[in-house]
Amino acid sequence: MVDNALKISAMNDCEIVMSRVFNAEQPLVFAAFTEPKLLKRWFFGPDGWSLKVCEIDLKVGGAFRYVWRKDADGTEMSMGGVYRELEAPRRIVHTEVFEMDWTCGETRVTTLFVPQDGRTTVTTTILYSSTGARDAVLKSPMESGVAAGYDRLERILPDMAAETV
Amino acid sequence: MQSISQLDATFAALADPTRRAILARLALGEASVNELAEPFAMSQPAISKHLKVLEGAGLISRGRDAQRRPCRLEAAPLSQAGDWIDAYRRFWEVHFQRLDVLLEEMKATPQTGGPKEGE
């Protein structure tokens, strides 16, 4: 669905802003982002992985912890953090850090749930405390992009130009 | 393969809207400092400062013609940064599409009972 498409609307060396529309009411979307039973059903990583541990203490100062597991070989990856601000079902600010040897920085994440006409726009702003934190993401087991030349460039540049009008 | 520091330089260079606009202009073909300064209503020194950042990040190169020193777009670092953004986008899109499916299931079941068990 084109109008629901994921937008990465701003980016610099230490911030990413992502926005996505979901066809569901705000409380439902908020629940899907904050209830372990629901998170395990969509936030389990690449295919072949599962969200084995999902502990959430949803209050200011409360902690959360996720452990992902690759079923084939038992590889695990974990992440934890603390809720800093909370206005259910509208806004969450939390810090997060990966508990792996490849991480080296805490990230501050602000998630907004904005309702409109039965849909909900989720906007996530990820602020890296340092380039080190972003490097951790770079080295994470995300599928790496395929090498490309001018064809990709041509896709990126019109967006850049549009931003500056 | 680009180093991490090169990627940092790329993102730092892209963080400024004027620099992004300069790159968008250079995607159409090479241009001199004068030609770049015109549409931006900026002084030549201000444009030159941006060009230095872009050149330092390897995103543009300058021609040898002493009079004009035309700026050219260098595609490689930018496409590397684009690859990374694409990978990030794909990672999240996969998750959000699963969430779409889950939300449809949740809408079909009473809230108080929670979602249906199993797939």
UniProtKB/TrEMBL annotation, chain A:
Gene3D superfamilies: 3.30.530.20
Superkingdom, natural source: Bacteria
UniProt-listed SUPFAM superfamilies: Bet v1-like
Domain Activator of Hsp90 ATPase homologue 1/2-like C-terminal: 27-157
InterPro entries given in the database record: ASHA1/2-like_C, START-like_dom_sf
CDD domains recorded: SRPBCC_CalC_Aha1-like_9
Entry's family note: Belongs to the AHA1 family.
Record's protein name: Uncharacterized protein YndB with AHSA1/START domain
Source organism per UniProt: Pararhizobium capsulatum DSM 1112
